[in-house]
Amino acid sequence: LINILKKAELDKMDIIIGPTDYAQVKIAAYFARKREIPLFSPITSMTSVWSNNPYVFNLNPSDQMQAKEFLTYFKKHHKDEKLFIVRDGEYFDKNFGMALIAECKAQKVTITSISYDRFLKWSDYLGDSNAVIVHTSYNKTSVNFSVTSLLSMAPNVTLVGPDKWLDFSSVDYSQWEKLNITFIGKNKAQLHNDKSKEMVSQYRLLYNDDPSWYTYMGYDHLLFSCEVLNAFGEYFPLFIEGKDLAYTNTNIKLNKEGNCFQNQYITIL
After folding, report:
1. What is the pLDDT of residues 15-38, one digit of tens each?
2. Inter-helix orientation angle 213-232/194-207, to 10°
3. Sheet holding 39-41: strands in order across?
């Protein structure tokens, strides 16, 4: 990376996309700020940089941004309902779960944290109140135990989980429906829209395969980069803040948040 950044032509770029590794993004961010070149970080979401850096644009929504957008949704659609989070200490919990708890604290939203247990007595927590339960487990067995034990509390419960649950096989969807199942994530192509359908069709013709989530990401981010450069040239950063631009698998909704620009899009299904 350092050798690439030493090339003379890099000083004259209108935009830099990448790199993807956290430590490398920090190096590239320093380079971009010093030369006033916008840097699009396509995969790694930088939640903090070494100083105020208006030249860093996180195209992939960070856990903090997803937590903030989820609370906006919660306040709008579940006002006056109790909010719980079921934690299992694994990947989604350590990332989105911790971000959600921190954001609730910052916004003074009451959230009750519960450690996952297959024998949880939900009545002790919920009573007769309506409640939103964010379940952080990626484990199908853990989710199934929770769904079964929560059925007695239906329809007063909205169970929220990562969109990875949509990959589960042999699921009793009638039980999910009773719990008003809701998914959060970054991949709106989980439910095909017109743009994603067109991309899948073209991709299959070219490669005889279906696109991965990284393929969607690369396609959307490069298309966004080309469109803003084509429309506004090197001055595009002046025109994209606050805009909500729709692509095959994500939307790009960039706003200055903290030290850099963050994509504030979240998919709620």
Report:
1. 999 998 888 999 999 999 999 999
2. 110
3. 16-17, 39-41, 56-58, 260-263, 254-257
The answer to whether 225 and 218 are in contact (CB under 8 A) is no
Question: For residue 126, how many other CB atoms are within 10 A of its CB?
Answer: 19
| Tokens at 180, concatenated | 């008003």
Closest CA to 217 of 244, 190, 186: 186
Give the separation between CA 67 and CA 266, rounded to whole angstroms.
Answer: 9
| Percent helix, strand and coil across the chain, each to the nearest 5 | 50, 15, 35
Q: In whole angstroms, how large is the CA radius of gyration of the chain?
A: 21
If one counts every other C-beta atom within 10 angstroms of the C-beta of residue 116, the result is 19
Please write the tens of the pLDDT for every residue from 190-248: 887 898 999 999 999 999 999 999 999 999 999 999 999 999 999 999 999 999 999 99
Tell whether the torsion through CA atoms of 211, 215, 221 and 222 is positive or negative. Answer: negative
Rounded-to-integer distance, Cα 100 and Cα 116, Å: 17
The runs of H, that is alpha helices, within 108-248 are 122-126, 140-150, 173-178, 194-207, 213-232, 237-240
- The two tokens of residue 107 are 């916004």
Which amino acid, one-letter code, is at 39? L
CA–CA separation, 218 and 224 (whole Å): 10
Overall residue count recorded for the chain in this entry: 269
Q: Could you tell me which residues come within 8 angstroms of residue 265 by beta carbon, excluding any fewer than 6 positions away?
A: 61, 65, 69, 186, 244, 250, 251, 252, 253
Q: Which of 135, 141, 60 is nearest to 97 (CA)?
A: 135
Helical pair 63-77 and 98-107, crossing angle rounded to 10 deg = 60
Structure tokens that stand for 111 in this block: 């959230």
